[in-house]
Structure formats: C-alpha cells, structure tokens
Amino acid sequence: MSDSLRAAAERETLRLEEAWRQAVTQDDGWFDATVPCAPGTPPWPGDTPFSCGWTMRLEAGDSVNLSSVTMSPHVGTHADAPLHVVAGGRSSDAIPVQPFNGLVHVVDVRDVRGAITLATLRDRLCVEEPLRVCLRTGASVAEGRFPESWCWLDAAAAAHLASRGLRLLGTDAPSVDDRVSKGLETHHALFAHGACVLENLDLRDVTPGPYELRALPMRLHGVDAAPVRALLRAVR
Ligand SMILES: [Zn+2]
Questions:
Q1: How many CB atoms lie within 10 A of CB 131?
Q2: Residue 187 Cα, ligand 1 centroid: separation in angstroms?
Q3: How far does residue 47's CA lie from ligand 1's centre (Å)?
Q4: CATH number, domain containing residue 181
Q5: Whether residues 16 and 117 fall in one domain
Q6: 201-210 burial string, b = 16+ CB within 10 Å, else e?
Q7: pLDDT tens-digit series, residues 200-209
Q8: For the chain, what percent of residues have pLDDT higher than 90?
C-alpha cells in the first residue's frame, strides 16, 4: 500500500470512529439488553459455541474482510422457534415480530428458587394479564459463565397467562424451563397458546417495572431458533 493510500485509509478510519462515537453516545433512553454472540459467550453445555473464520482478509491483499461464522442459534440472546421442541413445528423464519415489540414487564425473581408460581409472579406485576413478561433471574450467561441453575415460570402458570393474552415470555436465563427439564413443559405451554420465547437476555442493569421492548428475531430459514437484538426503554 502506498503512503498516500495509507494516509487516506487512516483519515477514513478516524472519520468513521468519530461518527461512530457520536452515534453511540447520544442517549435516547434505549438500553441494549443483548448478550453478544462472541467467542467467550458460554453456550449450553455441549452446544456449538460461536466461532469466526475468515474467507478473505484486507491484510492478505483481498479487496474486503469477509468472515464466516459457526454457532448454535441458541448462543447469546435468541428466540426459540416451536420447531425447537415440537416435531414439524414452525421454524425460525416464521417467528412473528409483534410479540417482541411493545410494552413488557420486567420482573425481579432473583430470590426465587425452583418454579415461579402464578401467585408469586402476580405479586410482582402491576397488571393481571400482561402481554409480555421478562424474568430477571440473575442466573445468566451475561455473567460470563453458564449458570448451574435458575428459576423458571411454572408450566401451568405459563399456560394460564398465555391463554389470557401473554404473547412473550423472556428471561435472562438460558431457558424458560428448568435446566434439567427433559419435557420442556413451559416451552410447550407457551407455544401451544401461540406465545413466543426470548432467552439469554442481559438484564443485569434493568430494574423491575414496565419497559418498551424492541427486539427482532433474525430471519434465519428453517432452523429452531433465531439470534435477537433486544432493546429496552423505561416507560415513564
Ligand atoms: Zn433456546
């Protein structure tokens, strides 16, 4: 690379860095609740972690940097598709977006051990029949390691709420079910009523209360889950 080209590339880098800095420091109230897909993000034990290879590299004289990513769609923040637990169920590209966008109630359940009953959840909610709920269990891969255990919404409670309009159950834990569950009853209860599942949120800095949620499941075709970017903004 010639000196003038290198100087132009450095100026371009500086200009982009400044534009980027200005964009990300504008506080519009939105909080990023996404666990990134990164080499260090703990997958479910035995699942495929994130890894990145390079097909082309600028430093090798190629015209672009071009990466190639391998990972389970359950790494980082993601939406499960019914196909995850139901043979022949709808796959990731059919996950609707409406359940992931709108008013959500973040509930602090960090003190709960085992299943969260309907009564416990209702005690901590300001509405009887929420459309969207996100559980802050405190047991999250956002902490940098895969948690030993976490609390989860009891399947009967999930079925009850989903039959009365719940469209989304989110959690900061790796699953809406118990870690050792083989029946995945809460997943089934939610999907049976058309509700959606959002897992591995980063809620470490999120206090309980109502929020606006903006989250979009990636339109990956034919698989059992989709990576999600999830944003929260407090409702004042
Ligand atoms: Zn999942």
A1: 18
A2: 10
A3: 11
A4: 3.50.30.50
A5: no
A6: bbbeebebeb
A7: 999 999 999 9
A8: 87
